[in-house]
Every structure is written in structure tokens, then in C-alpha cells.
Specification:
The protein is of the alpha/beta class and about 450 residues long. It has 14 helices and 22 strands. The protein has four domains: about 140 residues, 3-Layer(aba) Sandwich (Alpha-D-Glucose-1,6-Bisphosphate, Chain A, domain 3); about 80 residues, Alpha-D-Glucose-1,6-Bisphosphate, subunit A, domain 3 (Alpha-D-Glucose-1,6-Bisphosphate, Chain A, domain 3, 3-Layer(aba) Sandwich); about 110 residues, Alpha-D-Glucose-1,6-Bisphosphate, subunit A, domain 3 (Alpha-D-Glucose-1,6-Bisphosphate, Chain A, domain 3, 3-Layer(aba) Sandwich), CATH 3.40.120; about 80 residues, TATA-Binding Protein (2-Layer Sandwich), CATH 3.30.310. A six-stranded mixed sheet has the order 1-5-4-2-3-6, sandwiched between helices. Strands 17, 18, 19, 20, 21 and 22 form a six-stranded antiparallel sheet that branches. Helix 1 packs across helix 4 and helix 8 runs parallel beside helix 9.
Length: about 450
């Protein structure tokens, strides 16, 4: 299986990705973009330092300078990459400790995906025929942390408003531990850190907040401390999931609607993107708050492009990615958390009370099915449901029947079909889910 994926480069070290490959990828990256410099950061994994050294050698041997910002989380890399020629973060995001990889950007932190360059970089790497530059590049160290912290904290409005809030933040020993103590420390806020010490072996639990088992300790700490909110941050801090004061998980589409509420107070009429798996309450509420809801497909490269096309102020994805125009149209888990804290302080409401109005429909969450013939099953779904509702193919197959809807989309990397559906009530949810599961299971 190729390590050159739809959205990044990622593999097990050293079996699938090693220093020699990192060197070649560095040369291929510069050859593809023709860039004079590359901002490079790295996460806290034990292999990131050696991978950085090899990648930097490849970049400089191909004639480009490396702007080294050191260990960082991905939002900090995106911030440092503003007005840059190109950027790479060495990270495997939420994957287990044995993985590492690269998130690639062209100018101004615009992502490079499989469709916009990763496959070209793979081809150049495999060919291995690189022109020798007139001179080699050099490594230039830069401190990006200070400005990044100042910028992120500029979104804070909760200090001195309402009661003093308490928040538990679980960084899962990932790269968020490099930035979150600086962002949320020394504020008029009771900040309860959990697994904040950076450790690329992730000794306490995997740094993936979409898996409920990884939220157990956070939920327990929220209840133990009587916190107003809990936040689970993934390995490179570009995703987060929220826990309310009762220890209940808040789906990311619900959290996205709450964040939009905060942002639209000062951006009336602005576009807000929501991915097509999200509750239709998100679109309804965006419009009610004075925004312009725009549905988008899944995947950060597509969302960032669509945000720029619509000049959107914000986008939310069911996987826990939250994107902000002011953050260069890229993800920031910290700004997402700050926005929710702002609303908690301003309204005096509990997190569960902010979420309840958006949870007015019954949503399945994402259900995965291992299938051998994705296309045949999608065709069956089209033939069964297509004429009964509004069918469209923004991302996979979607059919909207007015009172309920479903989407089925294929995984980019696995033999999976992913189902999301929503109905007016739990009884109808179970009925429609049973119908769809029968088809998706090939029965």
C-alpha cells in the first residue's frame, strides 16, 4: 500500500517510511513546487527528529531554504506558513506511535492533496531524477510560538464575563501539549490539564478523539472536577471533540453550530460551511443566526478550497476539524475551544443547554461497512431511493427526502462505505437505518 495518500503522506516507520525516503520526498517536493523556501515543523513522535533531518537535507540539496520552526502542532505550522512559499509538518496526526508522515502545503498554507500534487510528488520521488541546483539551500531557525500564542489568545472574550469557567483539556500527550499550556494558562479560567506532557509514545491512550474509549479519562475528570467543559485534542491538535458538564460527548456538527453562533454575531451575512454528514439543524441555525449556510464535501483540502471560493468565515467537519478564515482558512482546535468558552461565559448557560436546541433531530453518526464492491452497492441504493427524493453526488451518494436524509460515501483508503442518516425521531431512525443496513450489508 502506498504511503502517498489522498490528503497526506503517512506510513509506519521504518517499514514504510524511513530517512532515505524522507530525503527523496524533500527533493521531490521542491522540484514539484519550484519553491525557494519551505517552512518545516515536526510533532512530538520519537521518529520526528530523524525524519526532519533527512527531509531538510533533501530540501536544501534541491536548492531551497528550510525555515525550521521546531516542534509544533499543525495549527501552529499553518500559522507560521502564512505568506510563505511552501510548508510541511512532519506528523501522523492521530495515528498510533509507530506511524509518521507529512502534511504538505503550497503558498499561504494551501493544502496539497492527492489530486493537486501528492501523486506528482510520488512520481518524482519514484523516478528519482533531480536536477542539481546552482547552490544548496540553508536551514534558518525561526521562533513561531510567541506570535502564534498571541494571535490565538486574541479570540478570547470570556475573561471577566460571567462566572469563572473550568475546562479540562486532554492533549493525549500529543503536540497540543506544546501550545495549550501557553494559550490557556494564566487566564481568568480554571484550566485542568490532562495528559499534557508531550510524549510521542502516547502512553495513556491513542490521540484520536473520535474513538469513545479515548474519552473515558476526560469524561471522568470533567465529572470529578465539576468542569463546565471538556476538550479532547488529537495528536497534532488540528481536531478536537467536546464533552459537556454531564460527561456526554457533543458531536462535532453540533459544536460547529455553536461556534458559528459566536462568530456570526460579528460577521452577519457571512458564509459558513458544514459538511454533508452534518445535522440539517446546523444549516437551519446558521441561517437563523444571520449567516449563509453552504454544504461542503468531506476532506480538509476540499473544504479549504470551498472556504476560499465562498470567503467563508468558518467551517465544521463531523470528524472534529474546525476551520477559521482568520486562521488562514485552516484548522484551529484552540480557537474552536475559545469560541465555545466565549458563549458559555456570555450566556451563562451550560454546554448541554447550548447543544440541546441543535440536537432536535435523530442522527446516526457515521457507520462503517466493509464491502467488496462499493460501486454495485451504491448503484443499488440509487435504484432503490434515487427517484423518491432529491439525489445528488457532492460526495458519494446523498438523498434528501425532506423529512429525512442519508449519505453513503466510499473511504479513500479502505474497502469501506460510510453511512450517515438523520430522521425526525428515534423510531424512524431505527426503521430507516435497518433498511439501509440491509442493502449495505449485501443481504
Amino acid at each position: 500500500m502506498s504511503i502517498f495518500k489522498a490528503y497526506d503522506i503517512r506510513g509506519i516507520v521504518p517499514d514504510q517510511l524511513d530517512e532515505k525516503m524522507a530525503y527523496g520526498i524533500g527533493r521531490a517536493f521542491v522540484t514539484f513546487l519550484g519553491c525557494p523556501s519551505v517552512v518545516v515543523g515536526r510533532d512530538v513522535r520519537s521518529t520526528s527528529d530523524s525524519i526532519f533531518a533527512a527531509l531538510a537535507s533533501g530540501i536544501t540539496d534541491q536548492g531551497a531554504d528550510v525555515i525550521e520552526i521546531g516542534r509544533c502542532d499543525t495549527p501552529m505550522l499553518y500559522f507560521a506558513a502564512r505568506d510563505s512559499h511552501a510548508a510541511i509538518n512532519i506528523t501522523a496526526s492521530h495515528n498510533p506511535k509507530e506511524y509518521n508522515g507529512f502534511k504538505l502545503c503550497r503558498e499561504n498554507a494551501i493544502p496539497i492533496s492527492g489530486d493537486t500534487g501528492i501523486k506528482d510528488i510520488e512520481r518524482l520521488y519514484i523516478e528519482g531524477k533531480f536536477a542539481e541546483p546552482a547552490k544548496k539551500g540553508k536551514i534558518i531557525k525561526r521562533d513561531a510560538l510567541t506570535d502564534f500564542i498571541k494571535f490565538t489568545r486574541s479570540f478570547i472574550k470570556f475573561e471577566g464575563v460571567g462566572k469563572r469557567l473550568k475546562v479540562v483539556i486532554d492533549c493525549a500527550n500529543g503536540s497540543g501539549g506544546l501550545t495549550y499550556p501557553h494559550i490557556f494558562g494564566n487566564l481568568a479560567l480554571d484550566f485542568v490539564p490532562l495528559y499534557m506532557e508531550p510524549d510521542g509514545t502516547f502512553p495513556n491512550h491513542e490521540a484520536n478523539p473520535l474513538i469513545e474509549a479515548n474519552l473515558v479519562d476526560l469524561k471522568k475528570k470533567v465529572l470529578e472536577t465539576g468542569a463546565d467543559l471538556g476538550a479532547s485534542i488529537d495528536g497534532d491538535a488540528d481536531r478536537c471533540m467536546f464533552i459537556d458538564e454531564r460527561g456526554e460527548t457533543i458531536r462535532a456538527d453540533i459544536a460547529g453550530a455553536i461556534i458559528a453562533r459566536d462568530l456570526l454575531k460579528t460577521h452577519k451575512g457571512a458564509a459558513v460551511l458544514y459538511d454533508l454528514r452534518s445535522t440539517k439543524a446546523a444549516a437551519e441555525d446558521i441561517e437563523e443566526y444571520g449567516g449563509r449556510p453552504v454544504q461542503c464535501r468531506v476532506g480538509h483540502a476540499f473544504i479549504k478550497q470551498q472556504m476560499r471560493e465562498n470567503d467563508a468565515i468558518f467551517a465544521a467537519e463531523l470528524s472534529g476539524h474546525f476551520y477559521f478564515k482568520e486562521h488562514n482558512f485552516t484548522e484551529s482546535s484552540a480557537i474552536a475551544l475559545i469560541s465555545i468558552l466565549n458563549l458559555l461565559a456570555e450566556t451563562g448557560k451550560k454546554m448541554s443547554e447550548l447543544a440541546a436546541p441543535v440536537m432536535r433531530y435523530s442522527h446516526s453518526g457515521e457507520i462503517n461497512f466493509e464491502v467488496e464492491n462499493k460501486d454495485a452497492i451504491l448503484k443499488t441504493l440509487e435504484e432503490t431511493y434515487g427517484s423518491k427524493g432529491n439525489m445528488y453526488h457532492l460526495d458519494g451518494l446523498s438523498v434528501d427526502f425532506g423529512d429525512w436524509w442519508f449519505n453513503v460515501r466510499a473511504s479513500n483508503t479502505e474497502p469501506l462505505l460510510r453511512l450517515n442518516l438523520e430522521t425526525p425521531n428515534p423510531q424512524m431512525l431505527e426503521e430507516k437505518k435497518a433498511e439501509l443496513v440491509k442493502i449495505l450489508s449485501g443481504k
